[in-house]
Amino acid sequence: MDFVVEHLKDHGIRPSVQRVAIMRYLMEHCSHPTVDDIYRDLHAMMPTLSRTTVYNTLSLLEGKDALSVLTIDSRNVHYDGDVKPHAHFMCRECRRIFDVPLAGTGLNGSPATPDGFKVEHTHLYYDGLCDRCREEEDAALAKETYFI
Amino acid sequence: MDFVVEHLKDHGIRPSVQRVAIMRYLMEHCSHPTVDDIYRDLHAMMPTLSRTTVYNTLSLLEGKDALSVLTIDSRNVHYDGDVKPHAHFMCRECRRIFDVPLAGTGLNGSPATPDGFKVEHTHLYYDGLCDRCREEEDAALAKETYFI
DNA sequence: TTGTAATTTTGTAACGATTTCAAATTTATA
DNA sequence: TATAAATTTGAAATCGTTACAAAATTACAA
Description:
2 copies of one chain form a homodimer.
Chain A: H1 3-10, H2 17-28, H3 35-45, H4 51-63, E1 68-70, E2 78-80, E3 87-91, E4 97-100, E5 118-129, H5 131-147
Parallel strand pairs in A: 3-5
Antiparallel strand pairs in A: 1-2, 3-4
The first copy, chain A, binds a DNA duplex through residues 14, 16, 18-19, 34-36, 48-53, 55-57, 75-77.
């Protein structure tokens, strides 16, 4: 069976054409797309797809834990079809989001939440500058210093 | 000197009346307020304060690292005047945000980001159910089971 | 099959958070 | 005191998201 359909069924979601298309998009793109990225790309291939369906489907998938919601970017929610534990890094300049392996962070699964709290998800985010934007900033700073 | 004014100066920010009021609000409220929380409460005391000033000031404070921006909630950005390292938990039901000590999480400061990346901030978020909402959900589930 | 109910999708309109922008005000400086 | 620079303000515009009711599709029972 198609791995996307299987993934949906595993999470108790009936695999409609639209749901499969959206889930497949997420599983085949590791770019952490926004709602608009998903809508634009899929709409080009399925002209009848509506923005509302993308919103509806993403929140359905979220509720069934079939995807991961990234809130690292305050401007846009991003989605990740890879639900295996990993961290993320966002560049404050180009705003691209990168996967970061958890290995090395030391993170383990037991936060000191108050008694009675039920932890369902953990998100580890980093932000700063990616290599490319860091070079640009360094160059700009050097130039600035030169002219002072 | 007033600790709020001092905090602003330490971060290279000129302490205008509005900036001090907003920074003080953040430092005296550990409730992780939204822009609207801040505006509503301060506007009641300073009727001339505008929403735009709250937005402007918060992004100025953010750029100077005088506060911490919490993106844990996809619906609203929250702000934290406490810039000492700590994690956060958001209840998916009541959407309240709680501070969580880092001790016990094992987190250390060296993620395996690609070469050349500059990590500037780390955010550790948990979500799930708080004690109060968990009890309510358990009660609702018990009732449901009973009637089936 | 056929009819009926349940589910899903769609498009429009409304909503709410945030940004833009230019004018007004305040503060710093010569 | 005059002038420039910085800051604040309010209105309008923008953009992401939600609400909602109609249309289309799918599931199921007769």
